[in-house]
Specification:
Radius of gyration: 23 Å
Distance between the termini: 65 Å
Structural class: alpha/beta
Number of helices: 16
CATH topology of the largest domain: Aldehyde Dehydrogenase, Chain A, domain 1
CATH architecture of the largest domain: 3-Layer(aba) Sandwich
Helix content: 40-55%
Strand content: 15-25%
Number of strands: 23
Largest sheet: 7 strands, mixed
Number of domains: 2
Length: about 500
């Protein structure tokens, strides 16, 4: 795969066909209204496909299909080994179609195809395999009781799980929700972001090919205000998992209260701090990862390390390193293996990023980037941007920009660094760079976030939960803990003659 050239990727992209209908009850179908929306390549402005724009009626059909499949037990009633085999087959099919899945996400939302084919698509296959392998290794409990009583505590699937996923990692985020929910025995209705629905629709087709029964995995593309809201308000959805903005996450919490008190598991915004102490011995490694932490995926990452706190004694030298790395990470054609950064997902998103940058030019010291650019005269691209001497109270340091914009803030003491890092409405992730083990443990313990990465950034795996604190939400993806949110605890108490 790494041997593919720009010409190879361009040719393969031209050979793709796009699934553009909703997938409900095991079939691709038009939206009930007949309405469509355009899926646009942000790198070129070209229309990739006209996609079915699902609404309330389509969500109703998908939920009904999911409920029927759940009630007759075609999936939840399958023995654990059978469900395991199906999801393992799905993981293998993703691997067999790795380049196609990578291209779908690259074309749809602008990410580098080299990242999609080496990180996103293989990661999706890995997570399906991981949860498949977990199915027959999760045990129920026998509670301690007195003589003549037997109390069984079981984890049972909830029923129909709604999943609303974002545009920044279309395939991965769909997988993080669907793999665990399916492994637990639920039916799933997935509403992918309208900016990037193509890989989710192809995933549905591969799931059917793998043997996931009709009605168990449904995909309804559409807008948040229509399809997403309908899913959130639906009286027959038992659980809803959401990744996206904090504002929309709060709306889903409201929808739950307005409907059937469905469980809602939000993973929302972030403004992750990255603390670099002077006792970090390898500042080049810290700078490399600081650049990765904000420029990877064009900064369109909920846990992006967008606040860089640097001890004042090394701040100026460290900023020079960041300027060098920004200069080496210029955007380019997402299909070109030589490109270091891709396109911003939409004009609207780029306009929002540029508003932050223009404001920052008045309040902070712009030392790198800061300009919108084009590639071959087209596309939604912005230079990787670094602001120095940012006030901790500046919007650059407070608000989630969701773009490749880094704010550098000096500190003079460990206490000051921790205080500023925690002074945020968000608490998704943080990074700490130090070669003092005591400091690493001390600072990590005090940071109020879901994940602390020491001497790296954004560490995650299938074995560890991912999610946040505060207004970053309380949902957790990945690890065995993710299964908990898609299941309910059921007690069966048997009284017998001893």
């Amino acid at each position: 795969m790494s041997a593919n050239t720009l010409q190879d990727w361009t040719r393969k992209a031209g050979e793709l066909s796009f699934r553009n209908q909703a997938f409900i009850g095991g079939k691709f179908v038009d939206a009930a209204s007949g309405e469509v929306f355009q899926s646009i390549n942000p790198a070129t402005g070209a229309v990739l496909a006209e996609v079915a724009s699902g609404g309330e009626e389509d969500i109703n059909r998908a939920v009904a299909a999911g409920r029927a499949a759940f009630e007759d037990g075609r999936w939840r009633g399958m023995d654990p080994g059978g469900r395991k085999a199906v999801l393992l087959k799905l993981a293998e099919l993703i691997r067999e179609n790795l380049e196609e899945m990578a291209l779908l996400d690259s074309l749809d939302m602008g990410k580098l195809v080299t990242d999609a084919v080496t990180v996103d698509a293989p990661g999706s296959a890995h997570f399906f395999q991981w949860y498949a392998e977990a199915i027959d290794k999760v045990y129920d409990e026998v509670a301690p009781t007195g003589p003549g009583d037997l109390a069984l505590v079981s984890r049972v699937p909830l029923g129909v799980v709604g999943a609303v996923t974002p545009w920044n990692f279309p395939l991965d985020m769909a997988t993080w929700k669907a793999a665990a929910a399916l492994a637990a025995g639920n039916s799933v209705v997935l509403k992918p972001a309208e900016q990037s629905p193509l890989s989710a629709l192809r995933l549905a087709e591969l799931a059917a090919e793998a043997g996931v029964p009709d009605g168990v995995f449904n995909v309804v593309p559409g807008y948040g205000a229509t399809a997403g809201k309908a899913l959130g308000l639906h009286m027959d959805v038992d659980c809803l998992a959401f990744t996206g903005s904090t504002a929309i996450g709060k709306m889903f919490m409201q929808y739950s209260g307005q409907s059937n008190l469905k469980q809602v598991w939000p993973e929302t915004g972030g403004k992750s701090p990255n603390l670099v102490f002077a006792d970090c011995e390898d500042l080049d490694a810290a700078a490399d990862m600081a650049a990765f932490g904000i420029f990877f995926n064009q900064g369109e990452v909920c846990s992006a390390n967008s606040r860089l706190y640097v001890e004042r004694s090394i701040k100026d030298a460290f900023v020079e390193k960041m300027i060098e790395r920004a200069a080496a990470t210029q955007p380019g054609n997402p299909l070109d293996p030589a490109s270091k950064m891709g396109a911003i997902v939409t004009e609207k998103q780029l306009d929002g990023i540029m508003r932050f940058i223009e404001g920052g030019k008045q309040s902070a010291n712009l030392v790198a980037g800061g300009e919108r650019v084009t590639v071959d005269g087209k596309g939604c691209f912005v230079q990787p941007t670094v602001f120095d001497d940012v006030s901790h109270d500046d919007p650059l340091a407070r608000d989630e920009i969701f773009g490749p914009v880094l704010s550098v803030i000096p500190f003079d003491s460990e206490e000051e660094a921790v205080t500023m890092a925690n002074d945020s409405i968000y608490g998704l992730a943080a990074s700490v760079w130090t070669d003092n083990l005591s400091r690493a443990c001390r600072v990590s313990e005090r940071l109020h976030v879901g994940t602390v990465s020491v001497n790296t950034v954004d560490a995650l795996s299938a074995q560890t939960p991912f999610g946040g604190m505060k207004q970053s939400g309380f949902g957790r993806d990945l690890s065995l803990h993710s299964l908990e949110k898609y299941t309910g605890l059921k007690t069966t108490w048997i009284k017998y003659k001893s």
